[in-house]
Amino acid sequence: MSTPSKQSHKLLAIPGPVELTDEVLQALAQPPVSHVSPQFVAIFRDCIEMTRKVVGTKDGQPFIISGSGTFGWDQVAANLVEPGEDVLVLHTGYFGDGFRDCLRTYGANVDELKAKSGFPVELHRIESALMVKRFKAITITHVDTSTGVLSDVKAIADIVRRISPDTLIIVDGVCSVASEEIQMDTWGVDVVLTASQKGLGAPPGLSILIASQRAIQVFAKRRSPVTSYYASWKKWLPIMTAYGNNKPAYFGTPAVNLIKAYHASLTQITSASPSLNERLRLHKQVSQRIKAIAEQLGLRQLPQDPAHAANGMTALYLPDGIGASDILPRLAAKGVVMAGGLGDSKDKYIRIGHMGTSVVDATRGDIDTIASTLQVSLKEAQAAKK
Ligand SMILES: *Cc1c(COP(=O)(O)O)cnc(C)c1O
């Protein structure tokens, strides 16, 4: 019998969800266990420990909660920002809009710095903005999945620490954790929020957020009540602390099978071969390969500066006269699923995800399949227009 990952299915080459390993798939197909059983508590504790490793923190507090990546925005907006406080949102695409809207929903006063199309926000603009106003928090989309633009979190964090040391540094790492380097402690980042289904190699369904001890202190000192029930760290912090100490606790049943799948993936990422560093190197290598092939095909990237292009995905403009709707069905018919654009010019470009096992396990041949199918489908789409 074929292993679960080899069962006939279309190859997912989108920026999440991604292809999963057999170990992860097998964890999903087991009878659920009790969320307060010693067996599950130990698994949850390990997930907390391994999550810390992936983002480079010793004492950051992980919150692993059922929800999608978006729920991380709610956690930040509900717990770390009080109504009327100022937040600076660095905008490099569609996901900056979402974070901004979420912050406003909870009463934050949001200023935005919008990047030029294809670039990250210039550092000198961030510097100036921080000198004019005292912001409670600044948000950075590490990789904006709508554009593939990669922001330099370390450089931005250095500036914030120098000019406005009390400002909380919040990183939306949904499309970067485990595919881009993140050193939370060394860089002085206060929150990394992410999700299970992109670089972390598990199915969708878990919101994963890591808060620095500084952020936890800021939360503990808030003056106004938290205006969310499910997102409140008042509820979740005791639960996460208990599991972290190998003790059961209850507030909302955890998605036990998803946690087991996440555990299986984290185990591969943090303690199997290749190492986390080697994985990051492989993401770079594969990314360069895909971007080189795209260039040969005459496809221009959305990011205009190679130093600020994501390593876990590629966003490519299509040639004039060809829309995403012309090429995506051709790719799908050949068994490869890529994504169209997001936002205003969504039919003008496509997005290719290359994260997780497709990148790390060369024996799967996924990257070859992605490259050859793109080539053939583009030719077809061009021929059909002639
Ligand atoms: C995917 C993504 C999100 C949203 O995550 P969901 O799991 O779809 O809610 C947020 N930010 C970024 C940068 C993303 O790539």
TrEMBL record:
EC number from the UniProt entry: 2.6.1.44
Residues the record lists as N6-(pyridoxal phosphate)lysine modifications: K198
Q: Which UniProt keywords apply?
A: Aminotransferase, Pyridoxal phosphate, Transferase
Domain (Aminotransferase class V) ranges: 32-341
Q: Name one GO biological process term.
A: glycine biosynthetic process, by transamination of glyoxylate
A Gene Ontology MF term for this entry?
L-serine-pyruvate transaminase activity
Which residues are involved in binding substrate? R351
Q: What's this protein's family per the entry?
A: Belongs to the class-V pyridoxal-phosphate-dependent aminotransferase family.
- The protein depicted here goes by the name alanine--glyoxylate transaminase
- List the source organism: Hypsizygus marmoreus (White beech mushroom)
